[in-house]
Amino acid sequence: MSEVGLTVWLSFATDExxxxxxxxxxxxxxxxxxxxxxxxxxxxxxxxxxxxxxxQVVGRVVRCINVADQFKNRLLSREEAEMVExxxxxxxxx
Length: 94
Known about the structure:
Structural class: alpha+beta
Order of helices and strands: EEHEEEHE
Number of helices: 2
Radius of gyration: 13 Å
Shape: globular
Number of domains: 1
Strand order of the largest sheet: 3-1-2-5
Strand content: 35-45%
Helix content: 10-25%
Number of strands: 6
Largest sheet: 4 strands, antiparallel
């Protein structure tokens, strides 16, 4: 778990298909959410995480929840994404 930064959740989808969820930590540095989102997308590119060119990415910055490291920096399936969102993958409050 990162000591400094924020967690960004990026969802990949088309109009018909869920492509996966990626959860990454980014450094805060008092940046605007839009810049944090760009940092998160850059990180997924560096990690080579992308379900394919047909998917659009939508994200959100999460300021109050730390996610267990096992769910970060990889493409999560729908089942894993739902499990994390419902709580078992969460490790407490920041």
